[in-house]
Known about the structure:
Elements: H1 2-9, E1 14-19, E2 22-27, H2 33-43, E3 76-78, E4 88-93, E5 98-103, E6 106-108, H3 110-121, E7 127-130, E8 135-139, H4 143-153
Amino acid sequence: MFPILASSLCRSRTRLLAYGSIWSRQIENLAPADQKRDRKAYHQINYNVYPHIPLRQIDSISGWMPPLDSPPPLPFRINRSKTNNIPVYSEIRKGRTLHLTIIRKIEGDLHAVKEGLKRLLGEDVQIQINEVNSQIFIKGKHVKPITKWLLLLGF
């Protein structure tokens, strides 16, 4: 009784079958062949979508900006991640008592990045350089100001 009631209430061309307590859906091919072709042509309409791409200004909701076409003339370069974001991350260590900000994917002079970060965040911030992995560790939560600074530099 329930499968008949469910199939009569269903608006699409599907029939619900009950197998114990599991419901499964079986598609019925009730339309003639030429109606199927028209439906396929209807669903294959292509729409041209041109998304709004912010041009070097922070006007998007997420704050994402495309990188400059040519890298800025600085002694270092910061490559973007696979998802085209700035590689600045926050991490919590030592029993949730140590907050770190990590900058990854740095090419070039790491000490120039450190000097720029000291001017941005202040002289009292502890900054550690890992030259093997080309990463910089900053003590504290500084993801938003560092990301904004790197976007304004053109990375």
